[in-house]
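EGF-like domain-containing protein
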Amino acid sequence: MRTTLNGKSLNTYNCFFLPECVCDEDRDCSFHDGKQTCTCKSGYAEDEGICKETCVSNDECGNGGTCQEKNGDHFCSCRPGVEGDTCETVTACKSGIYKDCKGDQGTCSYDLETNEAVCECSGNKRLNDLKHICEECLCENDRVCSFNGGDPKCTCKSDYADDEGICKKTCFSNGECENGGTCQEKNGAHFCSCRPGVEGDTCETVTACKSGLYKECKGDQGTCSYDLETNGAVCGCSGNKKLNDQKHICEECDCGSDGHCTFENNLKKCLCKSGFSDDEGTCKMCDCGRNGECDFEYGLKKCQCDTGFSNDEGTSKSKRKYLNIILTNITYKEYDFNEANE
């Protein structure tokens, strides 16, 4: 019979103390027939003299490791640069090149595509290629910052190139340039060349629409665009709206179906069809015959007759004077009469 006293095994059959039972942390210690025996703990099995944690599925193995059978047991098989019973430790993160990539200096992890350790940075920090930690690295908006030889360096973003000190978006064909721009080569790169009055890397901005004459021509006040025929900005109006020549926006302008409405010096103007005149902003029928002009005044029709004609109930009629000389009594008679306009 065996028992223990103060951590030591006691052989009660022979009544003497056995030496202290000592094994590695991953093993359980026991005595059999007076001999110390070290066996792997539950959930562990021996692999080449070392007790390792066993697995049941790949999900128990970290960093892309797989659960594989070996000598009747299953152990995690780790990828290159990864260690630990469950492949939980990335060597370069623990004691290698990225051992200081932690906390506010980065996050070290394992890249399953490259099978390598990586130091990931956040915010405005970038990886210092000499220190192998993340440090602050700032550039202008159109450039990206990186470290080269331990020093920060600003370069143009992908699909951008330097054009006279400014990073501009590059192009491959004219189809990438808006408003009639063309893709042209310059200093080994290709950029959009814009027409007059157009700006932006892809000629996407019409200057007059953005900040010039037609800057308010938007929404329900019109649509500003670029006219490729005139090489200028235009403010397009829809419905009954027309361009106000002073405000440079679209406003309501309707003269009815018998006229055309425009703005002149910020005032609405109706250009009416023949036989129609403007009556308080609407073209209405107004005819004074061939020898006069018809207009409305305070809502009333008014005829302006040509010379030699007068208004006869809204129609211009001719006026002639005839002299009838009666020689017998030397009497002069004058007759006035209106003759219908031919």
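thats it. Residues 316-342 have pLDDT under 50 and may be disordered. The chain has two helices and 36 strands. bye
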